[in-house]
Amino acid sequence: MTLGEGVGSAAESNAYEIYDKPSVDSVNVPDEVQEGQPISLVYRFISNNTGSDTSTFQWEWWDEQEKVWKKSGLASNQSRSLIPDSSYSGYQVRVVITPKGSKRGIKGDLVISNSIKILPSKPEVRNVTISSRFAWGHDVPKGGLFVIVKYDFIHNNTGNDQSIFQWQYKEYSTWKDFNSIETIDSKKLQLSVTKQFLFSSQNFTSYNIRKYAPIRVRITPKGSKKQSITGTVVEKDMGCLNQLLNPASTCSL
Fold first, then answer.
1. Between the chain's N and C termini, which has fewer beta carbons within 10 Å?
2. 225, 202 in Cβ contact below 8 A?
3. What is the architecture, at CATH level 2, of domain 23-119?
4. What is d(CA 222, CA 156) in angstroms, rounded to the nearest whole number?
5. C-alpha span between 93 and 59 (Å, rounded)
6. Cα–Cα dist 252/217, whole Å
7. Which of 106-110, 175-179, 203-207 has the lowest mean pLDDT?
8. What is the CATH code for 124-245?
């Protein structure tokens, strides 16, 4: 018998690629967002040899009356990011993720995010400036100074500007409100609803403050459509009356 006779030759099988269902973990969404703001969805995609991430998404909202999650009707309801409009204000939303890879049609187990509360948008006030002009004659018989506040109102779907104003003066370390001021012609200027404030000698006499007392305005952003929603209060110092009359002068507490 010659060498090798009766010995079988080695055989090789076909190569097989090992893979498993893709999965998603470490899902992260915010607890709450304001309407009109995009919801950022972050997660980790585990391919398990199924290719790159081509997972699909379905955003849902909670129907409190029927006690059931329903598919969102927004155009972006199957996108990774959702921008809730005003119709979702006060509701909760969530996203259902179906893990899927690019190389195979196999899908992983559904993963559901935590619920996200949609808060109503708040109006904003930006770029506040204060200007002044002298008032004589018809404005006020004894003369005075009109101080006017201007700003950009960002409504954020809350309607037209109906912001609230409160003018204040500082007495030592305490800010105090100017309320209704009775002018020489007995008309009252309601400071809580006006952007314009008239400083006259009577203002300072009735409040027993001096020309160098610091003065400011507090603006509470508010829109016409959603009266119960107010934005973050913005404060703007105007220095003091003395500085408006003479910019080189100083103010004092």
1. N
2. no
3. Sandwich (2.60)
4. 10
5. 7
6. 17
7. 203-207
8. 2.60.40.10
Say what the pTM is: 0.59
Q: Residue 39: helix, strand or coil by DSSP? A: strand
Buried b (16+ CB within 10 A) or exposed e, 31-56: eebebbeebebebebbbbebeebebe
From-to residues of CATH 2.60.40.10 in the chain? 23-119, 124-245
In 3-state terms, what secondary structure has residue 144? strand
pLDDT given for residue 156 in this prediction:
83
DSSP structure class, residue 227: T
Residue of 13, 41, 34 whose CA lies nearest to 114: 41
pLDDT tens digits for 30-68?
Answer: 999 988 889 989 999 999 999 999 999 999 999 999 999
